[in-house]
Amino acid sequence: MRRLTQHVGLATGVKIANSWLLTDKQGRRFLVDTGYFTDRPALRAHLWLAGVRGKGDLTAVLLTHRHSDHAANAAWLREKFDCPVACHAEDAPFLRLERRPKKMAVGKAPLYQDWLNLFEDAYPARTQVDETYEDGRWKWGFRVVPAPGHTEGSVMLVHEPTRTLFSGDNILAGVPPLRFIEHLSLAAPGFSQDTDLCNGHVLRFLRDLPRVDTLCSGHGPIVREKTGEKLKALLETCECRWPHLAEPAGR
Ligand SMILES: [Fe+2]
After folding, report:
1. Do 132 and 142 form a contact (C-beta atoms < 8 A)?
2. Is 78:84 a contact under the CB 8 Å cutoff?
3. Dihedrals φ, ψ of 233, to 5°?
4. Which are the contacts of 31, defined by CB distance < 8 A and separation ≥ 6?
5. What pLDDT score was predicted for residue 251?
6. DSSP state of 170
7. pLDDT 10s digits, 87-116
8. Assuming Cys at both sites, which of 32, 77, 86, 115 could form a disulfide with 20, CB separation 3.0 to 4.6 Å?
């Protein structure tokens, strides 16, 4: 686990999406997103080195959304560390396999994205869900910002005590799997169900942006310098490019 700030570590061996370990001032440890199935050995090693080794060492697994590059190891983590898994209520039925998601590979995305979507359609993440988020101020210092549209229950999580934004795939900090080029952007259309809906929620959040010192996105590098300014710049760019999102519809 590579420690990037006083509170945030990144499992650098988890390659496709980012898996962040947040340690708060009370010593509680939260894993935000869990990587893909193939990332499990690397994730296990990173957690071991960070001292997360057995039951009780992890307070909770927090999912930004149900896609398998973020949620595939949640069930294993839940079992191994005896910790709750939390996600938004709109994503929970899919993770519990109570509902089947709409197919993602529909031939409209670039070829490599459709290939990845084929895997997502064939091997969706599954896990029991112990808790579902409440929109707004939730618990452990987290504020939940719903951004449905990437998935039904995609969210961003703001950890208010450390001013850290976990944006999931709703705000991207780079192009996966690269982590050395910082480029902020909104949700990728090829992987999103309703990009306009998601972007509308994100832009509304950015217009009323709380103080954020650190951006931990679902993909790309950590952003910890001039983070607020960069997010405001993203807002301005997107408002110019997509003026129809100026007044996003409510949930
Ligand atoms: Fe995603």
Report:
1. no
2. yes
3. -65, -40
4. 19, 20, 21, 22, 47, 52, 58, 60, 61, 62, 77
5. 45
6. T
7. 999 999 999 999 999 988 777 777 888 888
8. 32
For the chain, list the domains and their CATH numbers: 2-243 (3.60.15.10)
pLDDT tens-digit profile of 118-129?
A: 999 999 999 999
Q: Ligand 1 center to residue 67 CA distance, Å?
A: 5
For residue 155, give the nearest of 83, 63, 35, 222 by alpha carbon: 63
Give the position of tokens 């703001």: 158
0.85 exceeded by the pTM? yes
> Ligand 1 centroid vs 44 CA: distance in angstroms?
22
DSSP assignment of 22-49: EE-TT--EEEE----GGGHHHHHHHHHH
**Residue 186: enclosing H or E segment and its boundaries?**
strand 185-186
* Nearest by Cα to 198 from 144, 236, 237, 153: 153
Q: Compute the distance from residue 126 Cα to the ligand 1 centre, in Å.
A: 15
Q: Which of 126, 52, 114, 117 is nearest to 87 (CA)?
A: 126
Q: Say how many Å lie between the CA of residue 114 and the centre of ligand 1.
A: 13
Q: Are the CB atoms for 161 and 24 separated by under 8 Å?
A: yes
Q: How far apart are CA 60 and CA 53, in angstroms?
A: 14
CA 69 / ligand 1 centre spacing (Å): 7
